[in-house]
Fold these 3 entries.
Entry 1:
Amino acid sequence: MSAADEAKDFLSNYDGKNIRIMEVCGTHTHEIFKDGIRQILSPKINLISGPGCPVCVTPADFIDEAVMLALEKHCTITTFGDLVRVPGSEKSLADARAEGAKVKVVYAPSDALDYAAANPDEDVVFLSVGFETTVPSECLTVQQAIEKKITNYSLLTANKTMPGAYMAMRNATDAFLYPGHVHAIIGTSICEKLRDEYGISGVCAGFTPAELLVALALEVRGLEKGEPFFLNAYPRVVKAEGSPKAVELTQKYMEQVDALWRGIGEIKDSGLALREEYASFDARRKYSLPHITGRDNPACRCGEVLQGKCLSKDCPLFGKACTPEHPVGACMVSSEGACSAYYLYGRDL
């Protein structure tokens, strides 16, 4: 019997205490749903989809800023596709595009820089969202813009870092399923610190069905022992030291700031913004954007879903007013969102 088969058998037949495990990675959320892993778990194992989708936790005021840049400052907005339909306080970037704004979908930050270089008469802004995995490539575009003297390019930042989220969510779960790609960048020392100083447990996991099953079995076995633990179940990619060069690049161009997470609130030192010496590439400062206080749809329960306080199907809008074709909340828009995953794969759970 393979390790994955043994893990599947153990997870299906587990009959110990009720436990909660939070995955804080949108890709984990979708893979767990898509692979049918939730269906084989013992009813005593409760999986919670946490705030691991960068689009889902991007606040409404960020979308409002992007819309202002597009419609009032006449900038060309370059962005990953998921952000186009995320609702702001009054409209989305899709709405702004329908009103004549220039919104261009790109597949990498380098595409946005290339577009700026090829169109020097346009003011190009890249919407810089995501966790530690994407930040180095966004910083690299600033470095290359400086080297190539491209002055019509800037970032509107809403980048987040995971350690603050772990601390904020620690009381909502018994253990975390740590995102393998994040810890491939930042390493595992933070997981060990959380274990040793705060009693927070977790397992770093890969993304295949076998890797997820083994990681979840390790979580449950660790929780059975009753002592804080950390295990790296993705050693082929995640190393203790992470990626020092990626971390160094991020620290050169970005600094920690307090950040607002949609539906959750402000988490101290959980965001990243360009340092003062790179202010000419910071769209907020470059275009003198005013402070904006965003407003979420009061009927949307994305924030509660992200905190594990309710399931997607508990929201009165889910599957009715809010669908992937006509999303009300960010969790339904993103391909990594918990509501999108639940809608596509889990409505019978």
Entry 2:
Amino acid sequence: MKNLQNYLFELCGEYLPSGFERDAAGVQELLAPLVDECFTDRAGNIIGHRKAALPQAKKLLLDAHLDEIGLMVSRIDEHGFLHFTNLAGFSATCLPASMVVVKGVRTLPGVVATLPPHLISEEEQKKPLPLSKLVIDIGYSAEEARKLVRVGDPIVLRQSCVNLLGSRVSGKALDNRAGIAVLLDALNTLRKMPLPIELYVAFSAGEEFSGFGARQAAEALAPDEAIVVDVTHGESAGTPKEKAFPLGSGAAIGIAPVLSGEVTGQLLALAKQHRVPHVKEAMSGKTGTNSDAIASSRNGVAVGLVSIPLRYMHSGCEVIDLADMKACSCLLSWYINQGGAIRHE
């Protein structure tokens, strides 16, 4: 699992909030050696392509979203503090006293300002602060701050990955750099093997607010089928058991009306055949992932969903198990190697 960990730690060091994914040269460098061609499209998706060993092979698209949750500067006040709005996915409950990075004229460290408990009444301490009451301190005067930061500049959490006990890791943006690491690991496993399919990989933009990147990739690449890799809720203190899975469960294979029964059935069959640890994740209606956008693109695409259990989603201290990521990587490698689920007529 060392490769997976190395991929994950490097990926989580990138600052790529939704809509601002174009600074992802480091991610593209990880993908390029594992595919025959690699490029960035207009939406900001990073696309990789491995050619099939046989002519007229069908196309399989693997998708994992590239973007992370973020904030956006809305104004700079007379004290040099940055006021901000939610760019995608943040809850105010996890922000006070957080370290952040502001992607201004240059990358700037900052902290989400918070009052010491000595200066807050007991009544006020019981109430969560809304985003509108929070500011970011970058240590500059108003005049200096306005030279370095502009309204509209993005902000992300500043948090390195750390190893916890065993195979567990904590850090920011594991949603969904873990999914990208899984795809890189699967590609690395298959790098010297001839493939029975045309394989496309999309590290897609904009999932946290719309899924537009995955939809554009599916429209342009016209796959016969697709599999999305994302995260799902992991069990932790206070998490409803019916909405989460224990870390260490393996690959969570989605079952939903929007997902293809053929692709899902093949994933389940391969997991059972090759003894890949897995659980079934039942979802009503849509999945809340890029699966929804891809399934409805063009004339419809047969889509499957494989997810990794994750604790503390959309925070700076998300927790994941590398063993679950490896289970997902192994399952995808088997799926690719046997040529997918959809057969040409």
Entry 3:
Amino acid sequence: MEGLAAAAASRTGGQVNFMEVCGTHTMAIAASGMRRLFPKVLRMLSGPGCPVCVTSQGDIDRVLALAALPGVIITTFGDMMKVKGSKGLDLNSMRERGTDVRVVYSPLDAVAIAAAEPARQVVFIGVGFETTAPVIAGAVARAKKAGLKNFSSTAFFKLVPPALELLLSDPENRIHGFMLPGHVSAIIGLEPYRFVSKKYGVPCVVTGFEPLDILAGVNMLLKQVVSGHPSVEDEYFRAVREEGNPAALKLMAEVFEVCSASWRAIGTVKATGLEFSKAYASFDAVKRFKIPYSDAPEPKGCLCGKILLGKALPPDCPLFGRACSPSSAVGPCMVSSEGACAAWFKYGN
């Protein structure tokens, strides 16, 4: 790999910057220690691939506003419990004060709670990318079929291909290749990424999550850079097909439709998220309970936004390892188990 990286660096100005667009890749790279083994001219950047991390401060405040409603049961995945709102509260602290917040392993668990407690409103906190969206769509479809009027969900979903477009359209962009997320790609397939190589001339490799997958993915990216022929390759062929998962895509198209989305550190961007379709609009929690969106500032001194855009590394943040740690996190990149800061704190560089 050393020789290949040197050849690639000669084509990119001396430094090769690849971005992994998946929090699972970020954690796998850190846990394996392979960052220390990569050639010095190769730098891996962590992109906007952590669902909790990209959720805007304004949407976190809406989650907490839902939790503050009397009699409402909030159901959520565990990663959302410690993400602080603009007033310093999080779901964990609200639960300590008596709010009914329950960690579930599946949105279907939330549907079951709604069926078991028909006198109470049950809200599932739906965040994530194309990976979690079909699962939540399935839960909502099941709730509709069962006639559950007391179940709803947020739809704070983001789409990966538009996120890549955002990164590449930035004049300060210095990304020479993308390691694409295996699980998202298992849903959407390869076609949505074609514009990256055709329009921007940037190599892409859909990659699995084992250390050998990641090393193979990096090697494939280096070869594309050296050859000068960017394309979209599939290293994770054992799980990802060209067409993706047609059943999951059909379900997503039925329950959701593309909309503008609010991204942490980026703002609101058209056609980068999902919201409930007209047929399922009654299941939208923020509309059901009339929770407005308000812009909220990022935590003071926190560089999560720049880290998500590949413009900074966790140690660049003045709060990293000092005021901000997993036990007392300031920003979401330290809260989430897939966050770049959490990975660097736990495993080093």
